[in-house]
């Protein structure tokens, strides 16, 4: 969970920075999208690094889900008879939505790939410039798409608020006197990611970026 | 005080069990929770009913025998308190209180609120010891121990093995208990030689008993009557990862 989660967090940071390029104009964004594919050229063939990244990400998502499912199953086996009354004491809202949050995120990722990567559910289709797909996708008339993205991104933020902290604990790098710093860092990273991911779709829907 | 109790009754391991409602009257706020149950049990015996079975021994918060889930919280909502040290003054007159046993597959119900915690004993047997002649208490400072380590080891050593951590954990994990023992022994000089093999043996035993996996929810620390800190689990994970890397 911790290692695959960390891979995905690193990806999200890079992805967020890439998305923000839309604020520098269509060309900047398209160049960036193109650069992702030609990274490492001419030493490496076209799309080598991108394909490797994609494989690592798919493997991370798969292993992360596998770990989540086996944890849930072990939990179900460990408590076959449920409590009649059960009250949470740790007050961790985010810890209790990890599983459903994860499911929501994966459904969103599928939709997101169909929308902006493969263009299947995007008005511009597959044969278009990445920036055009993005701007058309979040057109004010498609406000509900922006809404889906916003909800999903907030879910990612909540998932990571617990997840980042939890990963340090899982890897044995957490110590009582560092808990506060770790929690604040986890929350800060989550907030930065949420804002960074929300900015482009909102800016497009509200006409700031055309 | 007059109270309504909803208590889990289960005649034996194979019985399905059910909640049964009882009225208890004239409870003194100075009574402990177990004394309140004693009052009810005396009445049940007089009336020819089966008394409610529950575990207890010292009744002073040090043996780890007592424990029940009270209103959905292991050992009740009073923090850092065992069930035997919980007093009725923390409840309101006329309140309805639900009482359930620890619920975890590795802690099968023996009867009513009594569960079999032998799984903890087997985790201890797997590695909760030191194989050096420890002898009688050594002179202070004959073996230097860092103050921080001594404090952390002592904090971890206060675990009384009650099992509330398992009861509270949404995953039914025994990580806090196991981590407390691993931290307690692993931080002291006598425990060093077996530090990694101990962590591996105890964690593997914990998994073999059918406890769930830790997802760092923190529910365990919140109900632990001894306030065993969550970073004991980080220490256990660190030792376990190192043991497996070898
Ligand atoms: C594919 C769908 C996903 C599912 C079903 C899922 C589910 C889970 C579950 C059940 C946990 C363990 C609960 C816990 O540690 O409290 C977890 C932890 C975590 N998740 Fe996810 N998640 C998903 C996607 C993601 C994504 C996209 C990221 C990162 C961008 C991520 C990052 C993390 C991290 C860092 C942890 C903590 C790891 C640890 O404590 O060892 N997850 N996830
Ligand atoms: S860690 Fe706390 S809750 Fe768990 S067995 Fe020890 S004393 Fe009880
Ligand atoms: S009876 Fe000994 S701790 Fe409660």
TrEMBL record, chain A:
<dbReference type="GO" id="GO:0016020">
    <property type="term" value="C:membrane"/>
</dbReference>
<keyword id="KW-0472">Membrane</keyword>
<protein>
    <submittedName>
        <fullName>Succinate dehydrogenase / fumarate reductase cytochrome b subunit</fullName>
    </submittedName>
</protein>
<feature type="transmembrane region" description="Helical">
    <location>
        <begin position="141"/>
        <end position="160"/>
    </location>
</feature>
<feature type="transmembrane region" description="Helical">
    <location>
        <begin position="97"/>
        <end position="121"/>
    </location>
</feature>
<feature type="transmembrane region" description="Helical">
    <location>
        <begin position="181"/>
        <end position="204"/>
    </location>
</feature>
<keyword id="KW-0812">Transmembrane</keyword>
<feature type="transmembrane region" description="Helical">
    <location>
        <begin position="49"/>
        <end position="69"/>
    </location>
</feature>
<dbReference type="InterPro" id="IPR034804">
    <property type="entry name" value="SQR/QFR_C/D"/>
</dbReference>
<dbReference type="InterPro" id="IPR011138">
    <property type="entry name" value="Cytochrome_b-558"/>
</dbReference>
<keyword id="KW-1133">Transmembrane helix</keyword>
Automatic annotation (TrEMBL), chain B:
<dbReference type="InterPro" id="IPR036010">
    <property type="entry name" value="2Fe-2S_ferredoxin-like_sf"/>
</dbReference>
<protein>
    <submittedName>
        <fullName>Succinate dehydrogenase / fumarate reductase iron-sulfur subunit</fullName>
    </submittedName>
</protein>
<dbReference type="Pfam" id="PF13085">
    <property type="entry name" value="Fer2_3"/>
</dbReference>
<dbReference type="GO" id="GO:0022904">
    <property type="term" value="P:respiratory electron transport chain"/>
</dbReference>
<comment type="similarity">
    <text>Belongs to the succinate dehydrogenase/fumarate reductase iron-sulfur protein family.</text>
</comment>
<dbReference type="InterPro" id="IPR001041">
    <property type="entry name" value="2Fe-2S_ferredoxin-type"/>
</dbReference>
<dbReference type="GO" id="GO:0051537">
    <property type="term" value="F:2 iron, 2 sulfur cluster binding"/>
</dbReference>
<dbReference type="InterPro" id="IPR050573">
    <property type="entry name" value="SDH/FRD_Iron-Sulfur"/>
</dbReference>
<feature type="domain" description="4Fe-4S ferredoxin-type">
    <location>
        <begin position="150"/>
        <end position="179"/>
    </location>
</feature>
<dbReference type="InterPro" id="IPR025192">
    <property type="entry name" value="Succ_DH/fum_Rdtase_N"/>
</dbReference>
<keyword id="KW-0479">Metal-binding</keyword>
<dbReference type="InterPro" id="IPR017900">
    <property type="entry name" value="4Fe4S_Fe_S_CS"/>
</dbReference>
<dbReference type="InterPro" id="IPR009051">
    <property type="entry name" value="Helical_ferredxn"/>
</dbReference>
<dbReference type="GO" id="GO:0046872">
    <property type="term" value="F:metal ion binding"/>
</dbReference>
<keyword id="KW-0411">Iron-sulfur</keyword>
<dbReference type="InterPro" id="IPR006058">
    <property type="entry name" value="2Fe2S_fd_BS"/>
</dbReference>
<dbReference type="Pfam" id="PF12838">
    <property type="entry name" value="Fer4_7"/>
</dbReference>
<dbReference type="InterPro" id="IPR012675">
    <property type="entry name" value="Beta-grasp_dom_sf"/>
</dbReference>
<dbReference type="GO" id="GO:0009055">
    <property type="term" value="F:electron transfer activity"/>
</dbReference>
<dbReference type="GO" id="GO:0009060">
    <property type="term" value="P:aerobic respiration"/>
</dbReference>
<keyword id="KW-0408">Iron</keyword>
<dbReference type="InterPro" id="IPR017896">
    <property type="entry name" value="4Fe4S_Fe-S-bd"/>
</dbReference>
């Amino acid at each position: 969970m911790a290692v695959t989660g960390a891979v995905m967090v690193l990806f999200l940071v890079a992805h967020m920075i890439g998305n923000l390029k839309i604020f520098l104009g269509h060309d900047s964004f398209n160049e960036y999208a193109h650069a992702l594919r030609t990274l490492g050229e001419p030493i490496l063939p076209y799309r080598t690094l991108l394909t490797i990244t994609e494989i690592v990400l798919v493997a991370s998502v798969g292993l992360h889900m596998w770990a989540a499912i086996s944890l849930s199953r072990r939990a179900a086996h460990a408590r076959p008879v449920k409590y009649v009354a059960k009250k949470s004491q740790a007050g961790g809202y985010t810890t209790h939505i990890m599983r459903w949050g994860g499911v929501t995120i994966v459904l969103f990722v599928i939709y997101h790939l169909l929308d902006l990567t493969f263009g299947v559910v995007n008005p511009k289709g597959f044969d278009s410039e990445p920036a055009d797909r993005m701007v058309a996708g979040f057109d004010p008339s498609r406000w509900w798409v922006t809404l889906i993205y916003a909800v999903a991104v907030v879910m990612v933020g909540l998932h990571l608020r617990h997840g980042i902290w939890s990963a340090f604990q899982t890897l044995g790098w957490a110590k009582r006197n560092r808990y506060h710093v770790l929690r604040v860092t986890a929350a800060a990273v989550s907030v930065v990611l949420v804002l960074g991911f929300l900015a482009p779709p909102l800016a497009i829907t509200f006409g700031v970026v055309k | 005080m007059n109270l309504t109790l909803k208590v889990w009754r289960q005649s034996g391991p194979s019985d399905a069990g059910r909640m049964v409602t009882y009225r208890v009257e004239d409870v003194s706020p100075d009574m402990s929770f177990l004394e309140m149950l004693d009052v009810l049990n005396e009445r049940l015996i007089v009336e020819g009913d089966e008394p409610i079975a529950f575990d207890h021994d010292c009744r002073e918060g040090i043996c780890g025998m007592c424990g029940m889930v009270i209103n959905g919280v292991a050992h009740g909502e009073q923090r850092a308190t065992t069930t035997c040290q919980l007093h009725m003054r923390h409840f309101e007159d006329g309140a309805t209180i639900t009482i359930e046993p620890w619920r975890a597959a590795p802690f099968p119900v023996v009867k009513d609120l009594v569960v079999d915690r032998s799984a903890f004993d087997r985790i201890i047997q797997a590695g909760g010891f030191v194989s050096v002649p420890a002898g009688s208490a050594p002179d202070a400072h004959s073996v230097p121990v860092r103050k921080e380590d001594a404090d952390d080891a002592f904090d971890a050593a206060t675990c009384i093995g009650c099992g509330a951590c398992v009861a509270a954990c949404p995953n039914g994990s025994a990580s806090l208990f196991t981590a407390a023992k691993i931290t307690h022994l692993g931080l002291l000089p006598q425990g060093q030689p077996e530090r990694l093999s101990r962590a591996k043996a105890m964690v593997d035993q914990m998994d073999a008993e059918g406890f769930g996996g830790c997802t760092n929810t923190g529910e365990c620390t919140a109900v632990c009557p001894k306030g065993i800190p969550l970073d004991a689990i980080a220490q256990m994970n660190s030792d376990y990862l190192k043991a497996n890397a070898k």
